[in-house]
Amino acid sequence: MRSLLIILILISPILSYDYLANQDVKKFINYMIKEHKYSKSKLENIFKKTKFKKRVLSKYSVPKKAYKSDASWRVYENNLVVPLMFKRAKKFKKRHLKLLKKISKEYRVDINIIVAVAGVESNFGTNTGNFSIIDALTTLAFFKNRKEEFFKYELEEYLLLCRDKKYNPFKLKGSFAGAMGIVQQLPSINIEYGVDYNKDGVSNPWNIPDALASIANFLHSNGWSNSRSIVIKAKYNKSRFRVLDSGFDKYYNIQKLRDIGLTFNNFKQDNATLIVLNSKYIDEIWLGDKNFDILTSYNNSINYAMALYKISKKIDK
User: Fold this and answer.
1) Which residue of 164, 205, 285, 304 has the smallest Cβ count within 10 Å?
2) Residue 16: what are its φ and ψ, rounded to 5°?
3) Domain Transglycosylase SLT: where (predicted)?
């Protein structure tokens, strides 16, 4: 029955949905009241006004087995790791250099990585998303999709964020996944790592000082070290690498990587994240250090993290 309802919604151009009639929503409201002492009337008023978003659900409705979690490296390479991005990154760094130096010194995080995150996530604040966050998270929390429980948690965090910061939950816009601001923080990330760097009483994801300090705080708090590499390049004797799976969660012993024919120098950890970038004519092979793993903990994508790395290396050239 539930699957049929989703199909009917997806094929219908316009269909209002009564969230307050949904048993899972009722349970969620009771949970928020019991766990967080949230106002029942406020929650009911929010869910009464919240809208189902067909387009948002379609982003996560692909069956898990058929879903590919990451855009190809060529998409990143052709759209993000490009001269226009380098030019904008240089300009952004120059404009905010005093602020960036202060944040970098305080959190001990490389300036160029901070700049690269702002570039990849929102084109330096020019594209922070135009989806209603409450509509997006509620749709994904209560309609079947491959990350339903994750979005239910983010909805919980978003409602707490709005209550604590006195935000109107219907006013905030972000990505179709509920990410906010210049470095696209999910609600849970903002609550845990958000920084009120301009000292105006609130950590604002859309404010440049707050956003840049927040991503620096995230990286620092998770163990970032400027004295450690992010990745090192490896060589292989064939143009394509098909020996082992690569990915943000694919870790291999260094000796095993050497045994299968990879050559590399100066990798200081016992294990490495295996990174294979499928370029047009040849696979690039890299080994990720702990700093790389911290980047993929912000966004579970080796291509995302490699885009950050490559952009960061071009900023000062």
Assistant:
1) 164
2) -75, 155
3) 22-312
Long-range CB contacts (within 8 A, 24+) of 154-158: 154/178, 154/186, 154/187, 154/188, 155/28, 156/28, 156/31, 156/32, 156/36, 157/186, 157/187, 157/188, 157/191, 158/133, 158/134, 158/187
Domain range spanning residue 284? 231-288
Beta bridge partners of 235: 263
Q: Are residues 277 and 137 in the same domain?
A: no
Distance CA 291, CA 293 (A): 5
| Dist. CA 2–CA 145, nearest whole Å | 12
Q: Are residues 137 and 284 in the same domain?
A: no
Residue 278 burial (10 A CB sphere; 0-12, 13-18, 19+): middle
CB 70 within 8 A of CB 301: yes
